[in-house]
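COMPLEX REQUEST
Ligand: glutathione
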Amino acid sequence: MPETVILHDFPAGGPAEGWESFSPFVLEVARALKLAKVPFEQRPVNMLKLKELNPLGQLPVLSIDGEKVSDSTRILKRIESMKPGVFTAGLDARGVAEAWLWEEFGDACLYPYVLATRWADDRGWPVPRARFFGSIPAPIRGLVASRIRKGVTNNLVERDFLRGGLTACYERMGRVLDDLEARAPEAGFWLGANVTAADLGLFAHVHSLRLPLTPFQAQEVAKRAKLSRYLDRVDAATRG
Ligand SMILES: N[C@@H](CCC(=O)N[C@@H](CS)C(=O)NCC(=O)O)C(=O)O
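STATUS: Structure written out below.
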């Protein structure tokens, strides 16, 4: 077992009880480390030095005795190399593949709705505006914040999530949530009795949609009762 494991996070810190981070990916890795019973310290980064940790400028980054690993999926696989099979317990080869496909689904198909909720929707925008830009000197704060907001929303247009506007984006999200509701297990976890990579990926992003600071979106998740009960079970099993 490594001596020092550091999970690097945004300086904004945990946004609410039960949400280790504003970043769904940091939340995912925090829950993965707890599930794998790997002790770690969660540490805010100096944003000016982020590229020293990850040249791509993204979080999460996990430092394991000085070795820096970025990208949530790669980080989970690296944790599994210390604790073999910890995120695919009880699964055969097809199940293992499916667990990682669902984990990838969270990254590629659910995370953009978290971004839309917080960055494109005027009701969610006060959350990143206050938490991420609050420490920037007042004269330039508005300019920097609106420039980055524009960049994030343009990126969502390019990724085809916002091309038809926010209403169309949420319609599509509603259909995805309905399908997840229909697919959610009545008991246990996504692929059976054990928490797997599928649960970590799905939980991180859908739980982030029900952040209390964005109640309009939390309500949308709450309408899906079976999915919500499932998320509560993953939450309880991975809180540590
Ligand atoms: N595929 C990456 C995505 C990570 C990601 O998008 N992180 C966000 C924070 S939640 C970030 O660092 N965004 C800043 C950027 O992309 O410039 C992963 O799985 O870790």
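REMARKS: Residues 23-25, 57-60, 71-73, 107 surround glutathione (CB under 6 Å). The mean pLDDT is 96.
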